[in-house]
Specification:
By secondary structure, the chain is of the alpha+beta class. It has 2 domains: about 50 residues; about 130 residues, Nucleoside Triphosphate Pyrophosphohydrolase (Alpha-Beta Complex). It has 5 helices and 9 strands. The strands form 2 sheets. Strands 1, 2, 3, 4, 6, 7 and 9 form a 7-stranded mixed β-sheet that branches. The protein has a two-stranded antiparallel sheet with strand order 5-8. Helix 1 runs antiparallel to helix 3. The longest helix is centred in the first third of the chain and has 20 residues.
Length: about 190
Amino acid sequence: MFNNIEQFKEYCEKFFKSTSPIVDKDEARAGVLGFHPFALLVIALDYIEKLEKQTNSGVKVGVAVFIIKYENNIKKILFGKRKNTTTGEGCWQLPGGRMEKWEDPIDTGIREIKEETTLDIKNLKFIDFTNDIFNEEDEHWIILFYETKDFKGTPKVVEDKCSEWQWFSENNFPTPLFLPTRKIWNKIKDK
């Protein structure tokens, strides 16, 4: 009957509007209505909302990759400019993304770089991690950082969360840098 939770929610809201003069959502939650269909829908929606909050809460793990190339003996690193994001709009970041359940971090890096830039990368070397808290967005991220010089292709914008990809030398990084990128660079630049 429903293809996804959103369709179910829409159906419930229409049902609530048609019955709201008759019964109250708070009465349904309190059990006053017993097993009335309205009460069951309210309880189901409350449960779905609780599950969505649990799914979206907690620490998220991401992977970002320093993709390095040498041009006229100058070390350059690939950066993308963030757009259409709730966090870090207009900031420059390393390519990468969220690790999926059961996924190996190296596989995440390879997959995300391919999805975001079309580059094929391999031989990733772990560098370090950052622990990033975005209070306004109520998000907590652990970002694992890798590096590689082993890639094929030319970076292209293929997703709408990045407006451009550019190569920058270590002495001339773009600004502003996205928080995790800025933190990792400050942590490793003198090593």
